[in-house]
């Protein structure tokens, strides 16, 4: 699974992406996580199965959800205290809950599964 973490400038999303990547690795999950910005989102969406949106981008959530839906990508608005999730496990659980528990393969718009 490919997780995109989006924030305004890319700094805080880098920390969240790194933490969730480590948490997934520690749990034996083959997830990748990378950081992006609101500005790079139109390009970054093509490489993501899940988009984690920084709480400070709530004003852009409807647009992000619309753009992600066109690609079959799940969007999760992160809570305002997410930056205190030092080991990434809470963030990882938000991802897994959004994709149906185990966080296995995700269906694409065409019906095929993506790992």
Automatic annotation (TrEMBL):
Keyword Transport annotated: yes
Keywords: Kinase, Phosphoprotein, Phosphotransferase system, Sugar transport, Transferase, Transport
Phosphocysteine PTM positions: 7
UniProt xrefs under InterPro entries: PTS_EIIB-like_sf, PTS_EIIB_2/3, PTS_EIIB_3, PTS_sugar-specific_EIIB
Coiled-coil stretches: none
Pfam families: PTS_IIB
Positions of the PTS EIIB type-3 domain: 1-105
PANTHER family per UniProt: PTS SYSTEM N,N'-DIACETYLCHITOBIOSE-SPECIFIC EIIB COMPONENT
Protein name according to UniProt: PTS lactose transporter subunit IIB
Organism in which the protein naturally occurs: Microbacterium pumilum
